[in-house]
Design brief:
Layout: E1 21-24, E2 27-30, E3 47-51, H1 60-73, E4 77-81, H2 132-139, E5 144-146, E6 150-152, E7 156-161, E8 176-178, E9 182-184, E10 188-190, E11 194-196, E12 200-202, E13 206-208, E14 212-214, E15 218-220, E16 224-226, E17 230-232, E18 236-237, E19 243-245, E20 249-252, E21 257-258, E22 261-262, E23 266-269, H3 285-294, E24 309-311, E25 315-319, E26 322-326, E27 329-331, E28 335-339, E29 342-347, E30 351-353, E31 357-361, E32 366-371, E33 375-377, E34 381-384, E35 392-396, E36 400-402, E37 406-421, E38 425-438, E39 442-447, E40 475-476, E41 482-483, E42 496-498, E43 501-503
Parallel strand pairs: 3-4, 5-8, 5-38, 6-9, 6-38, 7-10, 7-39, 8-11, 9-12, 10-13, 11-14, 12-15, 13-16, 14-17, 15-18, 16-19, 17-20, 18-21, 19-22, 20-23, 24-27, 25-28, 26-29, 27-30, 28-31, 29-32, 30-33, 31-34, 32-35, 33-36, 34-37, 35-37, 37-38, 38-39
Antiparallel strand pairs: 1-2, 40-41, 42-43
Length: about 500
Amino acid sequence: MLERCLLGVLVVSIGCGGSGGESTTGTSLSGGPATTGATSSSSGEPTTSTSTSTPTTGETTNATTNATDAPGSSSGEPVTSTTAGTTTTAGTTGTTDASTTDASTTGGTTGAVDFCLGEGGILLPGDEVTCTGDLGKKTFLFAICSCSGVTANNTLTTDSFDSEMPDLPPMDGGSVGVNGPYTASSSVDIGGSLWVDGKIQTFNKHEVAQVLQCGDDVTASSASHVAADMFLEGNINAQNKTLTIDGDLHIQAGKLNNGAVVLGQTVKGPVTVETPCDCADPIDVAAIVQGYQQSNDNDALPLAPDALVGLPEPKQIELPCGRYFLDAIDSNSSLEITLTGRTVIAIAGDVKNAGAFTLTLGPGAELDLFIAGNADFNNIAAIGDPKRPAATRIYVGGAFKFASNFTLGANLYQPNATFTANNMSEIWGSLFVGGLELASPLVVHYDQAILELEGCDDPNKACGDCHDCANPTPACTDQGTCGPCVVDTDCCPPLACDGGTCKAIIPG
């Protein structure tokens, strides 16, 4: 993959936070332009909301409610946060001086437009044309994408929705991609396509709502169903008619269909199944973090890089629009972070939180979180907004682990580690992981809005393959430049071409 970048479509006009101070024990933080109160990006009216610390006990209901309801229930008034230990307030009235100058208004790293005013994307460090929005919509194409095999020892369910549509109706766009063998011993319901570069074995009820593509043999030992076409490089073993294909079967010449019921036609000939997940060219998360270490908006608050290291007591912090660098996050108690605008947080080390952890997006806020190390949440955790998970993108160089119940409304990229679901898990967004192990049930609701994020790439940029391109010009043409797609194979797996753009839902 050539240039990668991410952020932007859900926001039309976002304030960069008000002037204000962060008062801590012996420390004063102030940042943002000198205004009166924080401004809601949706209405521009002053709003107030009050939050209390998330308890460090296993009260999972509270953590889930905060993540789901808080962003939509904010009324836009100045935010005042209180904890038993440290209090941090941002967006309150302040005076204008050198420390309160909003970094976004300088345009130094935002290009010709001001991303905090909702124009353009947040540029990746050291790049004048690529931003975070392009990175997101090139990366998160599947509900689940695994760089190695998948073993589903418990139930797996996927579907999709579009957070820009009213009422958020569920749809069949939640596809699964596997760069290796796929084994399902429990029931599976894939609300999208299944794309496997290896053998498929099913031992329980198995549903695929769209196309199934397999680069090896398919063995169905229990009732299995494909609602569209199947493309197969190997043989089918479905004794007692345990597999039904509603569409056509495209099977490599010389390979056998042993028992599958094909309601459409059987087409024998050359079949090539592409590797679904782009794992050969991983995103260099550490380099991106290092870039933001050199160029960030910390001084505008000010925010010290070690501000969230060694926290002995509960803490709440609110960050306005900007790009922030942290050495690490290390807290022995509850930690709540609230974002009010378009934000990048780059972390050089690990994230370790012993207490409850909450990362909330205010109305219209977005987040690109880059963690060079590992992330371990040893208590309940709520991250992102389940009503608009396309607004949160998380990139991890190591592993992202939950030890307790969690709410994740985000797209997670961790290609170097296996994601393990040890507790019943429901995710709004997507997983791009090194591997997947299901010890407990897993449900993933893919947000198709991720494919329409605002980007910075030249629509006619040079390309080597489809992974270098994204909507609105998602295909790498014969001329070696990005352009509109014409047929489905112009799109990266599992997307289909519709009117020149690539979509999660197969047209028709």
